[in-house]
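pinned: reference chain
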Amino acid sequence: MVITTEPAMKPAYLSGLNEMQKKAVIHTEGPSIVVAGAGSGKTKVLTARIAHLLKEKKAAPHQILALTFTNKAAAEMRHRITGIVGNEAKALWLGTFHSVFMRLLRQEANSLGYPSHFSIYDTEDSKSLIKQITKALGLDDKVYKPAVVLGRISHAKNRLIAPEVYAADPTYQKEDAYMRMARFSEIFLRYTRHCLQAGAMDFDDLLVQTHKLLYNDPMLSAKYQAQFRYLLIDEFQDTNLVQYSIAKKLAAGHQNICVVGDDAQSIYAFRGADIQNILHFTTDYPDHHMIKLEQNYRSTGHIVDAANRIISHNEAQLKKKVWTDNPIGAPIDVLTTRSDMEESRLVVDQLLAEKFSHQLLYRDFAILYRTNNQSRNFEEALRKKNIAYRIVGGLSFYQRKEVKDLLAYLRFVVNHHDAEAFRRIINFPKRGIGPTTIDKIFSIAAEKSAPFWTVLSSSNDFLHGATAAALTRFVTLVDTATLKLENENAYTIATYMAKASGLLKELHEDKTVEGLTRYEHIQELLNSIKQFVDHPENNDPSLGSFLQEIALITSADKEDSNEDAVTLMTIHASKGLEFKYVYLVGMEEELFPSPMMLGSKADLEEERRLFYVAVTRAQLKLTLSYALSRYRFGMLTNVKPSRFLKEIDDHRKAKTIAKPRLPSPTAKATVAPKHLTKPSSSVRKIEAPLPSEATTDPTTLEVGQMVHHCHFGLGKVLRLGASAGMPKAVILFDKFGEKTLLLKYAKLEILPSTQKPYI
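pinned: its structure tokens
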């Protein structure tokens, strides 16, 4: 009898992958770099790779460390992996750099002199502490601006420069003197000391302290090197010096480090990201294996081709040729308008036309810009058309004052050394405890070298009357809540503190619209804590666990992408997202590229990568726009089209047909300028003629003339007539079809006979 065997079945997680994606999944041993072009399915590859490690390589979940940059991306990966391997995914060390290293530090913090439930200072907490320090040193906070000082501290930390080293370096001292901040190093030293005394770390410390642990403690380093058999890093092009140094240390044991990224999307140098990390990975690991994911599944052929043309102008890059099997799609439109205000009107008109022509939703559209202040004109244009929109990057829910107030109470219950939380809550709601009393408590604590909570708990020794009584009630409030930590969950303690502190009562009694909104925000925070406690997969419903969970949440992680609204955002904020229709506005010199990015070739190449990122957000249609004049510093200024427009279209290098005369800042032009160049098949230039303020004289209008309407755009006059004695015209508009308009109210502009329709 002949026994035949069926070929081994392909694992389900490999189905649907192309050949290069499969290679990236199954090549698991040794260092490897996956160069993943925009829209090439890297998340799918990462999740399949982790599933392969668990299923085929028999790695235990705790042996896999997977690092990314947003909670949203980490949650999506975990969800997909759970769908493949089940509950095993819960034990993975998977999350953002900050959240994973916070988990590690919770276990090892004592060896650094921190409590295991250390507080995490956000930007507002850090700036508040810096204000306290500059005040104590008698420095002018208009010179030592908290945001600037914090930025310099962060920059030093990301270069692994300790405050003591910084203070002893004459080069840094000379630089500080030039910046008129000669005593910056004193602030840096005190800031670091205060954080340690308060049992608090800022976001940078989560990385710096992890680095310190691993590089200063060989036994602890060996422990984690042995544990993490496989290390995966997503968005590797965004890593900074500290992150990559930690990764190399952790991977030193097994050498199974896999980095996934796209150097063409490295756009965060201002945050400390170093593109050299991905460019030099092959040098750091000579025996590496490189895989290129070059098939784009997101965008049309025209968009992919444009992106390739853009990035080809950069010298510092890992060469790749992105391609797609998607349809060629619509050409890229380039809109030219006379002013920034007219740019916003035209973009919104185009957006409406596309929406109704293709039966789209508002959430299918995004308007991207280089700087936040560009949003104003577009907000006004959208509001005038009653179009719903959302601005990404606004105030996060967890950054609202009332939410931070209650969270500060909860932080202080968990960590009695948290000085910034204490300062925030000690007199809110008002208890009659002023700055003088607070300063006295900290002064006595400093004199006695004692924790300020110890001094606070014995305040009756040096204070009397109403102030001492108020402090005693506060201490009792915190002590009562602290006793609940061991046996009560986060929701029970949070509800108690919201009521017992008087915070809920204070907000409930404020019957203004703002007061009611703040009260609702507190209720929403309590709801979120209840959801956290009741979640079936949550094995730790404690208050400390909740505070850890939300400490690193960003506004991007909380965005509601299901809302039917046009999205407005900066290009930086758009990274990782995609939209069917994208409008990239303000394509002008000294706006994009930014004048601050013209100082070096490296800066200009980063700005070009930012352009590449913007273009590759579009799935079906990309529209670029620029104005010929824009208000800057209160003055209408003539501007030039961005140099990047020439790079997206090689045909723009053809002989100029007619150079337009730019409008005077003090006079209105009446005729749109001619195109700068001949249009190509992939890029379509659209010059927008704009209506004058005066209404066209109805008696001068003739059948066959081209006209422009402020809402309907370009059109051709088909018929003239009258209605109730008032002149009217039937006009065929390019985007909206036939419309009958009363000429008295239409405010049409008659265009030159040479004017052509949009299409």
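why pinned: The radius of gyration is 30 Å. The longest helix spans residues 513-534.
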